[in-house]
Design a protein that fits this description.
By secondary structure, this protein is α/β, with parallel strands linked by helices. The protein is built from 6 helices and 5 strands. The longest helix has 14 residues. The protein starts with 5 loop residues before the first strand and ends with a helix.
Amino acid sequence: MPQNKHFIVIDDDALNNKICRVCIEKIDKEANVVTFTDPQEGFDYVAKEYARTDQSHNVTLFLDINMPMMNGWEFLELYDKLDPRVHSRVKIYILSSSVDKRDMERAKENRHVVYYFIKPLTKETISLITYAQQKKA
């Protein structure tokens, strides 16, 4: 059973968001999954919700790279300016269709990105993340 029951998916592709929701809920029917097709709305949600002192739970965030209006790299630049309390509660995983090694290296170099996964999200990926989070706890 996943330790972290809160997930955010930010991807301009509504179908991918649905796939992620289904995949997460297959692992844990009690999971709280919030999805955004607009990256700015997703950013605003993270900035508001996880800066609140009464918000005690951590969240796993799946972020796409290639999106219109704000791409994943721009999201991460804004995210870097948020309060460190937000950073400590949000674990960001890139979930992209890009297999470009430069994207993977850039993600690896970003201090806020835990890992880079290729779409689609799978139950095995969720299990891997859950296992890693439980080992750190």
